[in-house]
């Protein structure tokens, strides 16, 4: 299905069209409609009306069964979803088939279970001086926030969109979603599946288009939006916060990162190298959780860097950057690193394949070393297949280096010393610390970042909390 808006249960391609390019070879593979302000307004109005209609009267059981039907609907069209995700992003098919699409299904199933099984608290309250039982019962109910705007990025398009849509719907909100302009296809398929699942018209709406001065900003600045859940760059989060300020709209932000890995001399080195290959180069580094700063304890520094470089050079089956613009940004950091004095231990350029990929947006997996901590290459998020490796001497220095960043999303610690792991992990300023693993996910756990990496937490009940408002009811007995 071609990218289309989905407003009040109806597909439309209103608005001018812009080209959709394949990152694999740069060819045009389709067009995307750019939602004008009135289409965004109609989507917000449809969501508001849905809350006043049958959707607003659904029980949590009914909503959870909708979520399960949506999960089944994606599963039934699994290959179509994989094809669409691969076409939009150019990522290896195996990645889409084992991570992105299964996680989208998992997101709906997880929130169906979590929302249905969610306990609420009650407090019997003693009221001094009252006659009779002298008691009251306080209990908490949760109301949806209303109309929620969901804005998602291009790197894990369906995974990150459904990560917010599932809890938002489970909590009873009506949604207006805007996926990235680079990756509109799986979101459109999702709208189709949601329609087939029988969700009342207006409960889920989808608009396509760009961000600044376009559909994204029309949506986040709309006075009819009660909350904004956003995943993307920190600078975009700041811009969205400014537009949200006008209407004091609640925000949940998952933003950028410059994630450290700490490799201690007592680590299983082969495991640490393999883990770092995954954490730095999966999806060509275009995952917010990817490692871009690696700190290795001095006794194993040379051995580690040689092994990592060898593995980076051997990588062959990797995907492109999402766009020519993003590829140019990544390559500009490769050049900057050299200007700043880096030693390029692996990669550092554009690969040649001898096939249609030579017209695509590729960058080589790259390992750098030799930069001071003040270098822009070490401080700024690149979001490509690149890491800088530096030595450290002791635990305190490792923690200090890890924390010396404006970001604080995820960190990885490689050590076989369990006491060290427990000592170091809580000292790291990050929302997520993985020990001897990376990106091992349990959907019930809190997910998010500190400092410029985000506001709030998603995952499990944290998402259900964000997407609902507690109301305390006090009944005098
Ligand atoms: P981006 O911020 O450029 O775009 C994300 C979304 O925001 C897109 O849909 C875009 O159209 C929209 N947008 C852009 N400007 C807007 C504005 N002014 N108002 C409203 N909407 C606007 O990010 P990207 O390039 O798509 O993704 C890469 C970035 O996302 C990286 O920084 C990465 O670290 C971050 N990211 C973070 C997480 C996380 O969970 N923390 C996950 C994925 C990506
Ligand atoms: O696994 C997740 O739930 C999640 N939100 C991943 C984010 C990855 C960032 O690119």
Automatic annotation (TrEMBL):
A Pfam family the protein falls into: Aldedh
Domain Aldehyde dehydrogenase residue range list: 16-470
Enzyme Commission number(s) of this protein: 1.2.1.85
Protein's UniProt keywords contain DNA-binding: no
Keyword vocabulary terms for this entry: NAD, Oxidoreductase
A GO term for molecular function: oxidoreductase activity
Entry annotation: catalytic residues: 254
NCBIfam families in alphabetical order: OH_muco_semi_DH
Name of the protein: 2-hydroxymuconic semialdehyde dehydrogenase
